[in-house]
Task: inverse folding
């Protein structure tokens, strides 16, 4: 399969993830969308690694996974904290940073 | 007139030794008085006037001692340079705080300290009931110090300090009753008009520095001999502007009449006897410069002639006794300026007239003050009359002053004015006629003043009980009147004064086209005509001001439209200009910046809308930004 | 036979479907499941691209750990908190779709038809290290060891951060058991469990009152609504006596006790 196809697939998933961030109000779903975007990146890494015959892409994808895990931990902690004080997981609620 | 007048032989100035090296004490004494009184006014409340009189008198006595000392010197060795300390030392610019005591300065020192002391004494009575009289005497001392500095300075820059000092004292004293709005306004007006003249002096000094690199009289005099024509002309005209400002000459005359808002002793000392004559001093002191430029001299004559006539006409129309006297002052200084403009023929007589005028005009002003003192500070001559019997001393001294000013022999004015007429006629017939006419006008308005004030039946306001003034006031009047009576004869006897001043200013015998005897006869006839006309015209005086008068009288009552001219020519265009500038400032300059600010504000208000606070909007912006960057990169690649 | 295209098409389409499903499903739980589905398909795609270690990590880390963490938090926050699908930011939906489609269009425009490289595959590299896992290990603990250590530090920081963020400071000292008991009974009302309804084993309907040891009726064993309506069954004393006989016969109850009960 041509690497092009993998890249396009990766782009589609990435864009869907981006749309998810923009469209979904539930903070957890927005978070999932971010994870999806990271995974799209990983897919591109892996397919590049495969195409070039070089393992560095896979190592990168691994590191991305680690960092995604960290992010999830912190992000979910933030969501829980916000939920505790506001009884809501909507990202539109804390819109205090405005004019 | 020939272009190159014989230059005065360079004055031999020797460095002072002995008593002369203490010349600075002359200035220091009244300055100390001013310092003490103005600083410790509250503690010195009772003592202040006496302290001021003491220091002023001490200054006169010291000055007189110096004068006697100077007499003992040979005639050509009477000029002294008294370096006090180096004032400014800055590269090419070296100015010493140095004094020059020569015959000219000496004459002024004696006049200033003597008349000044007399007027100090007079003020003791005149200001008796003023609660701020301590301050008044402090200002008087300050004036005396500044005036002495003006006449003793050995360079133009130091002279400028004295020049500004007397301007300051004048400002403070005109506005002494600053609670009166008219006095405050008059003080401001005097200050502003003087500023124009001072500007001329400062420009003249700058031109000197440009041309000669120095300010001292001797160096400027030496430098002017070899300088180009325009230098002498420029400096001469600028000095004339300065002199016109300080001496209330056309076209800067307007402040003097308003300056009469000040206390009468101030009018007598500053605005008659001494300060206003500083312009004449400046011209005579700069004789070498004026000798080098005929055009400048002609300008001086023209200015003097206009002021001479205008002052006399104003003096003849005013009903306010002090303003009438102020017009007279302007006119008399016009005589001096004309004389000074004549060149070496006239310098000595300008100073001579200055000194005699200092005496008799002081007497007249003090007499006017005495009359005002007696009539509850009324200044309107239409409310006087019949005071000759009630105020014998005042009437007597005033009469001597009157005879002196109109030029009746043997009183002082006769001699000085006669010489000026002679010099004027020797210059040209027109200048001679103008001065002659001026003399006639002087006789007319002074006679009018004496008749209105003293001789006609009483027209007092109700509740006025005229009485003779206290001795502190009559004593100086008597002293000065005696001076007015004899000083003219004393100074001209055997040509003492000509010889006295000749080393400084140079002297040239006047060559009148007619004989002295004939000229004297004509002059006395003109004066007599003026007197008789006034006597005929003012057989009776109305209490109210007649309104159906000639155009000239109307104009003269308005100071010959001096203020109107100033307002129309300078003030109104200035106001319009400043208003326009304000408009430009507000519309164009402020508009630009407020416009920028408003544009920024509007733009930020629009941009502010994008800051919604919604995370999802921000995410959309990020995506949009990414798209934009990618698009631009793509464009760049294509 | 090369299965790769087939696997790509199947897993690729599934992963896109999963992603779209996450995007449009109303309930967060469904979204989570769709994401998990996508990730599993991505794992398949990793595997087919000769990255077996990543494929397994994907399944273990993402579908196993991360997504379960998501579900756990969803349960805390409330599983049934459905997202309303009505957009309330003006123009946001249009902008988002435009942005997303624009991104896809750009990526396709940029990559489409521009890559002509033949796929090399990692077999050779794997072979030099003696396997995919060995190769990755050599890189991670070799050339990228510092980054690896940095990620370790990052993980620990994340853990600490999560603890701090979710930690609640105690405002008052913790109550001891004795204090709590005192607090409970200081009001004076009965806090123990209510007696259950029913009479022994013969009746367990809720309208039958319980009997106290002396044979009287325990009133608070009956539900209040039934008492109010009067739907209470009387106690069948014959039945009770029958029970007693049986229990005596079995030696469960002593005579004296039985007599006292009566």
Result:
């Amino acid at each position: 399969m041509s690497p092009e196809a993998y890249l396009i697939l990766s782009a589609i998933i990435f864009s869907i993830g981006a749309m998810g961030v923009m469209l979904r109000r539930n903070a957890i779903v927005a978070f999932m969308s971010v994870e999806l975007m990271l995974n799209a990146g990983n897919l591109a890494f892996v397919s590049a690694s495969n195409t070039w015959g070089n393992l560095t892409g896979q190592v990168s994808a691994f590191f991305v996974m680690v960092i995604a895990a960290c992010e999830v931990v912190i992000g979910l902690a933030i969501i829980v904290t916000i939920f505790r004080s506001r009884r809501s997981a909507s990202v539109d609620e804390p819109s205090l940073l405005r004019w | 007139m020939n272009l190159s007048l014989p230059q005065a032989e360079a004055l031999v100035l020797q460095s002072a030794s002995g008593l002369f090296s203490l010349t600075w004490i002359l200035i220091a004494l009244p300055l100390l008085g001013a310092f003490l009184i103005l600083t410790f006014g509250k503690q010195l409340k009772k003592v202040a006037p006496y302290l001021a009189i003491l220091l002023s008198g001490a200054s006169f006595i010291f000055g007189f001692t110096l004068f006697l000392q100077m007499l003992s010197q040979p005639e050509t060795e009477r000029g002294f340079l008294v370096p006090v300390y180096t004032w400014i030392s800055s590269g090419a610019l070296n100015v010493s705080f140095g004094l020059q005591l020569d015959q000219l300065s000496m004459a002024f020192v004696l006049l200033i300290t003597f008349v000044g002391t007399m007027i100090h004494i007079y003020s003791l009575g005149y200001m008796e009931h003023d609660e701020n009289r301590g301050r008044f005497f402090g200002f008087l001392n300050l004036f005396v110090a500044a005036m002495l500095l003006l006449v003793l300075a050995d360079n133009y820059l130091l002279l400028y300090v004295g020049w500004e000092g007397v301007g300051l004292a004048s400002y403070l004293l005109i506005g002494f009753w600053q609670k009166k709005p008219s006095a405050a306004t008059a003080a401001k007006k005097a200050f502003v008009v003087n500023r124009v003249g001072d500007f001329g002096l400062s420009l003249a000094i700058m031109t000197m520095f440009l041309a000669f690199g120095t300010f001292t009289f001797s160096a400027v005099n030496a430098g002017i001999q070899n300088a180009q024509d325009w230098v002498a002309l420029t400096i001469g005209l600028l000095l004339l502007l300065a002199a016109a400002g300080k001496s209330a000459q056309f076209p800067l005359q307007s402040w003097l009449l308003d300056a009469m808002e000040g206390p009468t002793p101030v009018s007598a000392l500053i605005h008659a006897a001494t300060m206003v004559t500083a312009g004449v001093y400046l011209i005579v002191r700069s004789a070498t410069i004026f000798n080098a430029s005929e055009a400048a001299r002609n300008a001086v004559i023209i200015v003097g002639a206009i002021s001479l006539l205008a002052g006399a006409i104003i003096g003849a129309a005013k009903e306010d006794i002090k303003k009438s006297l102020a017009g007279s002052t302007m006119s008399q200084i016009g005589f001096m300026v004309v004389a000074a403009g004549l060149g070496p023929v006239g310098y000595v007589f300008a100073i001579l007239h200055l000194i005699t005028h200092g005496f008799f005009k002081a007497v007249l002003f003090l007499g006017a003050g005495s009359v005002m003192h007696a009539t509850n500070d009324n200044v309107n001559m239409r409310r006087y009359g019949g005071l000759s019997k009630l105020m014998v001393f005042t009437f007597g001294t005033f009469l001597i002053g009157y005879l002196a000013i109109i030029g009746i022999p043997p009183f002082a004015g006769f001699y000085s004015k006669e010489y000026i007429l002679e010099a004027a006629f020797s210059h040209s017939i027109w200048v001679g006629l103008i001065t002659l006419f001026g003399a006639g006008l002087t006789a007319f308005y002074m006679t009018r003043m004496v008749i209105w004030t003293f001789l006609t039946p009483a027209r007092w306001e109700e509740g006025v009980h005229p009485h003779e003034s206290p001795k502190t006031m009559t004593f100086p009047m008597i002293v000065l009147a005696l001076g007015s009576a004899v000083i003219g004869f004393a100074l001209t006897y055997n040509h003492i004064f000509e010889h006295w001043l000749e080393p400084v200013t140079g002297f040239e015998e006047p060559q009148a086209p007619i004989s002295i005897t004939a000229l004297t006869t004509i002059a006395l006839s003109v004066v007599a005509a003026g007197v008789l006309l006034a006597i005929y015209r003012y057989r009776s005086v109305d209490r109210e001001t007649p309104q159906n008068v000639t155009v000239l009288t109307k104009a003269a009552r308005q100071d010959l439209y001096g203020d109107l001219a100033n307002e129309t020519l300078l003030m109104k265009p200035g106001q319009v200009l400043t208003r326009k500038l304000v408009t430009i400032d507000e519309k164009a300059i402020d508009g630009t910046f407020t416009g920028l600010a408003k544009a920024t504000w509007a733009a930020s208000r629009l941009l502010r809308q994008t800051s919604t606070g919604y995370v999802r909007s921000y995410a959309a912006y990020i995506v949009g930004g990414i798209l934009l960057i990618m698009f631009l990169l793509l464009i760049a690649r294509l | 036979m090369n299965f790769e295209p087939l696997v790509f098409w199947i897993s690729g389409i599934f992963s896109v479907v999963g992603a779209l499903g996450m995007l449009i499903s109303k309930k967060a739980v469904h979204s989570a499941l769709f994401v998990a589905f996508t990730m599993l398909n991505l794992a398949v795609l990793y595997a087919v691209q000769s990255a077996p270690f990543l494929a397994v990590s994907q399944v273990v880390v993402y579908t196993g750990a991360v997504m379960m963490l998501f579900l756990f938090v969803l349960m805390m926050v409330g599983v049934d908190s459905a997202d309303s699908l009505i957009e309330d930011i003006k123009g946001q939906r249009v902008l988002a779709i435009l942005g997303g489609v624009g991104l896809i269009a750009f990526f396709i425009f940029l990559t489409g038809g521009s890559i002509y490289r033949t796929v090399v595959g990692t077999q050779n590299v794997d072979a030099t290290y003696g396997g995919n896992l060995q190769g990755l290990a050599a890189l991670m603990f070799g050339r990228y060891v510092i980054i690896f250590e940095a990620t370790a530090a990052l993980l620990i920081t994340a853990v600490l951060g999560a603890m701090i963020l979710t930690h609640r400071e105690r405002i008052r000292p913790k109550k001891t058991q004795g204090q709590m008991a005192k607090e409970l009974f200081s009001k004076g009302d009965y806090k123990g469990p209510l007696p259950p309804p029913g009479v022994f084993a013969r009746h367990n309907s809720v309208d039958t009152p319980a009997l106290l040891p002396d044979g009287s009726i325990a009133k608070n064993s009956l539900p209040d609504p039934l008492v109010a309506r009067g739907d209470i069954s009387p106690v069948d004393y014959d039945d009770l006596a029958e029970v007693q006989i049986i229990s005596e016969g079995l030696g469960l109850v002593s005579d004296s006790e039985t007599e006292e009960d009566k």
Notes: Chain C has a mean pLDDT of 81. The first helix of chain C runs from residue 4 to 24.
